[in-house]
Specification:
single chain; alpha/beta; TIM Barrel; 8-stranded parallel sheet; 8-stranded parallel β-barrel; 22 helices; elongated
Length: 615
């Protein structure tokens, strides 16, 4: 007779991915497609867990959603891969002679949902619905959603499952050592958010070992009495030894905790990364040998003391915000931090720009993916030693959501309030082409986090941070984009997220700006945020041709390229003249200029600004 979820505790199998890795398959391989290319290997893993006593085995389909499969060119094989995954698990159950259940495994998407990413709630739900429908049609007994860190995403996955099938749903978030998900959600917040969805089983898996998992499990049990719970921790924290990933927690250790999980109220108990059939067998022996489980109290490691922050007066608008509100035409100049730690030359150039009546200095972050001093330090030193307000360039590329928030709070603590949120240059073009380029949040998503959460005294997960921040946030804009409709749409999304101003790519033709503004107004009404138009002075015909032909987003009109060709050795002077001519047209459609001196020649900025008639 098949087990059911009312009989618990039931034993779930352990890791699939690390078992396949141990067989020699690298982590950059599409493990889900092994259901078709190496079915016997997958079958052997299932059989080993069944022989060890598992009541439930999970299909090898954790990443078999359309977006993840597309990374391997397999998006059109989604149905076949998920079907094969269920069929292999069913075959293993038949051949084992055990009455075990097959759980269709569904992991999170590889792209973030809005506001952290570009995917809408409807798109996320449709992507999960496609995979879950395939698993249900192939004959899965239940659906297990696992290793989710975003509450919004798992909510859409649950709704998708409810829409396309009537199978029981197990919903598992993943928690870090601090007892929160990687996106900052506490077990209490998870319980409150998902309670109304009436999930069949709620729990956790991955990331932490049994000790931390028990703490979270106890909190969930305390928050949702009577709810069926699940727990599938990792075999401790992974280490890389001799080129292999090793997990420290041994089977006996897991066996000891299996009884504690059951006593804490877990209906489903199993393992995640690093666990093996030996861990499953140890848990089977522990559960089979249990006497009547006794309730245990939540460990003291999850403090519930209330934090009372010391409040300060509300932040005043930045000087940049005040100048724009007063209707002033604002002059901004970009500077690059030094390659070393000595800021002397940077500060000397900043003083010269101050004396040239520059309003604000933009400090780039690793431009062209070249290693330089952190721009927070450069901004802080310029503001402190020179007295000119700065705009911190803040790329989202290469930062996860935890680092994003921590870095922003650090910048705020140093007195930096103006930020320019941008995707950032890919490491592949810079000094360290092998550096990670992952990111958790797109620029529009980060603007929303800044303006609607940090500036309201909350972190991304909605937990209080004390005093609200006072960031004034800018965004990037390419007015000469090939797809004008898309660029206006993206800008509108950034404005809706809360953007305060926009810095444009270097421009060489005022007609381009007029055309873009007209296109935006036609689609979304008058442009509601101030524009700083980028001006990058040309130095020679070679410089002009390089920018036109090799730098994405920069287009030089034929007349500008022709003037630079005819300039010959006077290219620098002609480039300054062109920049001055463009600068004088900007007040017609822009609220400021964003000067980008080439090759660190900041004196050029002063020469160009001489033509401005400023009070």
């Amino acid at each position: 007779m098949k087990p059911n979820l009312n009989q618990g505790p039931l034993l779930v199998d352990g890791a699939m991915g690390t078992m396949l890795y141990a067989q020699g398959f690298p982590f950059d391989r599409c493990f889900d497609n092994l259901n078709r290319t190496d079915p016997e290997t997958v079958l052997q893993v299932h059989q080993a867990y069944l022989d060890a006593g598992a009541d439930i085995i999970e299909t090898n389909t954790f990443g078999a959603n359309r977006l993840k499969l597309a990374e391997y060119g397999l998006e059109n094989e989604l149905q076949a891969i998920n079907t094969a995954g269920v069929e292999l698990a069913r075959r293993a159950v038949r051949e084992s002679g055990r009455d075990a259940l097959v759980a269709g495994a569904v992991g999170p998407l590889p792209q973030r949902m809005s506001p952290l990413g570009r995917l809408t709630a409807a798109e996320v739900q449709a992507l999960f619905a496609e995979q879950i429908a395939a698993l249900a049609k192939a004959g899965a007994d239940l659906i297990i959603l696992e290793t989710f860190s975003d509450l919004r995403e798992i909510r859409q996955a649950i709704l998708a499952a409810r829409t396309v099938c009537k199978l029981p749903v197990v919903a598992q978030m993943t928690y870090a050592e601090d007892g929160r998900t990687p996106l900052g959600f506490s077990p209490s917040e998870v319980a409150q958010e998902l309670h109304d969805l009436k999930i069949d089983v709620l729990g956790l898996n991955c990331s932490v070992g049994p000790a931390r998992a028990l703490e979270v499990l106890c909190t969930l049990a305390e928050q949702l009495p009577g709810t069926k719970l699940s727990v599938q921790p990792n075999a401790g924290w992974p280490e890389r030894i001799g080129g292999r990933v090793i997990y420290a927690a041994n089977p006996d250790y897991f066996g000891d905790y299996a009884g504690q999980f059951a006593a804490a109220g877990a209906t489903l108990i199993g393992g995640c990364c690093g666990t093996t059939p030996e861990h499953t067998a140890a848990m089977r022996a522990a559960l089979d040998g249990m006497t009547r489980p006794h309730k245990i109290s939540p460990p003291a490691a999850l403090p519930r003391t209330k934090w009372e922050p010391r409040m300060r007066p509300p932040e005043e608008p930045t000087r940049l915000a005040q100048k724009l509100a007063a209707g002033r035409f604002v002059v901004s100049v970009e500077m690059n931090p030094p390659r070393g730690f000595d800021p002397a030359n940077l500060l000397s150039a900043a003083r010269a720009l101050r004396d040239a009546d520059v309003d604000v200095i933009n400090v780039a972050d690793s431009p062209m993916a070249r290693m330089r001093m952190s721009p927070w330090a450069a901004c802080h030193l310029i503001q402190q030693d020179v007295g000119v307000e700065t705009v911190l360039h803040f790329p989202t590329r290469g930062r996860n959501i935890l680092r994003v928030q921590g870095d922003l709070l650090a910048a705020h603590a140093l007195g930096v309030r103006n930020i320019f949120v941008v995707m950032g240059d890919p490491p592949s073009i810079g000094d360290y082409p092998e550096a990670a380029a992952n990111y958790d949040v797109v620029p529009s998503g980060l603007v929303k986090v800044v303006k609607h959460q940090l500036n309201q005294g909350l972190d991304q997960a909605g937990s209080p941070i004390g005093q609200p921040t006072g960031f004034f946030a800018g965004v990037a804009l390419n007015m000469d984009a090939r797809d004008l409709e898309r660029e206006t749409r993206v800008l509108h999304r950034k404005i809706e997220a809360g953007a305060d101003f926009a810095l444009t790519q270097p421009l060489y033709d005022p007609a381009v700006a007029r055309r873009f503004i007209a296109a935006y107004q036609e689609g979304y009404g008058p442009l509601s945020i101030p524009l700083f138009v980028g001006i990058l002075p040309l130095q020679s015909t070679a410089h002009a041709e390089f920018l036109h032909n090799e730098v994405p987003g920069i287009v030089l009109p034929p007349n500008v390229r022709d003037r630079m060709r005819k300039a010959g050795t006077q290219g620098r002077h002609v480039g300054i003249k062109l920049a001055r001519e463009l600068l004088l047209t900007l007040p017609e459609f822009a609220r400021g200029v964003y000067l980008i001196p080439p090759f660190g020649r900041y004196e050029i900025a002063a020469e160009i600004l001489e033509v401005l008639d400023r009070p």
